Amino acid sequence: MSLPARLQAASSEYQRLQTDLSNAVEARQRLDAQLSENELVNKEFATLTPNNVVFKLVGPVLVKQDQVEAKSNVNKRLEFIRGEIKRIEAQIEEIEQKSEKKKIELVELQTELQERQKQDGSGGSAS
């Protein structure tokens, strides 16, 4: 593969990695929002007495729900969200590492291309 073609391929790969990173960061932010929301609900549950009634929004309707079941659902959701955050953070770390390697490769390829262009421009032998 020619040097310009390798540079183009590396550049495309780097752009793809940056897009993947952006998507992963957005997913992490959404999970943070969900985590905060569910932690707030969990704190509210702590203030309930056994006589309080809990409702769940199902479509446009509020449906009465058992307190124990509602608390269990929120705890399961919190556990799931925390697990997803760990998974996304690992994914972000991996993408950042790949991106940094690709960035170094791009710089090396650009430098090599510039050096070849200087040699070709100064009357040096063609490669």
Task: Tag the structure with descriptive keywords.
PFD_beta-like, 127 residues, two-stranded antiparallel sheet, Helix Hairpins, Prefoldin subunit 6, mainly alpha, rod-shaped
Mind explaining what this structure looks like?
- The protein has one domain (3-120): Helix Hairpins.
- The protein is mainly alpha-helical and 127 residues long.
- The mean pLDDT is 93.
- The chain has helices at residues 3-46, 67-121, and strands at 54-58, 61-65.
- The protein has a two-stranded antiparallel sheet.
Helix fraction bin = over 70%
Task: Please report the first level of CATH classification, the CATH class.
Answer: Mainly Alpha
Per DSSP, the total helix count is 2
Strand numbers in spatial order across the main sheet? 1-2
Concise description?
The chain has 127 residues and is mostly helical. The chain is 78% helix and 8% strand.
Question: What topology does this entry show?
Answer:
Elements lengths: L2 H44 L7 E5 L2 E5 L1 H55 L6
Antiparallel strand pairs: 1-2
Helix pairs in contact: 1-2
